[in-house]
Amino acid sequence: MKNHHHIITVVAYLLLCCSSLLPSSTTALLLPSPTQHIVSRPHHNRQPTLTSLHATSSSSINEDDSPRTLISKGMNSFRNGDVSTSLQYFDKANNSVPDDKLTPYLWQRGISYYYLDKFQEGHEQFSLDVRVNPLDVEEIVWDIACLARMNDSRFFSVENQMSLPKGKKDRRKIMSTVYSLFRNDGATEYDLREAGHDSNISDEFYSLFYLGLYCEIRGETSKAEMYMKMAERSKYATGAGYGDYMSACARVHCKLRGWVV
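User: That's the sequence. What structure does it adopt?
Assistant: Structure tokens below.
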């Protein structure tokens, strides 16, 4: 989740710093934002590759690692296609902070849950995320995806789905269409495709990515594959947005499903 997570980072930092329950060693915790990793993006002529990070196994988790380090390692494991290990790092980070104070900020863990088919756990994670970040459409969308994969009746009922506060919306225009589509609230697949096509490369990527996710949870595998492969090879995912965590999601998604780009 992207630039807006800088805001969450600050909120999480202030929350943890102000808590008298936390040892001083954790007060420097800053939750890593996917956009902070763009600096590690390879040269644009280099084709992105995914290899499992075998060296980063559960046995290599350092008991002395800070929560920030553990989250960073988890994100790197996910980027390299090792989703199981990413979850171990996120769990370790969560357990290292008392009283579950970190839990509502571990949106990365929710995504790992989804790709490990742990949809109930993913639903629980995203439900907590929305409580502290109620204006983030993507947290709501991922929760809907988890409910759909569980065949939960709430997926079919707009009234029972999580929603944005009344009168509020995500600041990113493309997300309004994503939100409406996933909630079956008026937008169509065509609307989202056109919204991305008529905008910038970032919006184009996000429209393709969420079209892929949307089709997947509806069981439309062929279309899901088409959209997700287009997202993975988009200008944004292979260029300026290569370091975006959601670009990594597109790559991991295609790899796990066996969709060769």
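Confidence is low (pLDDT under 50) at residues 3-59.
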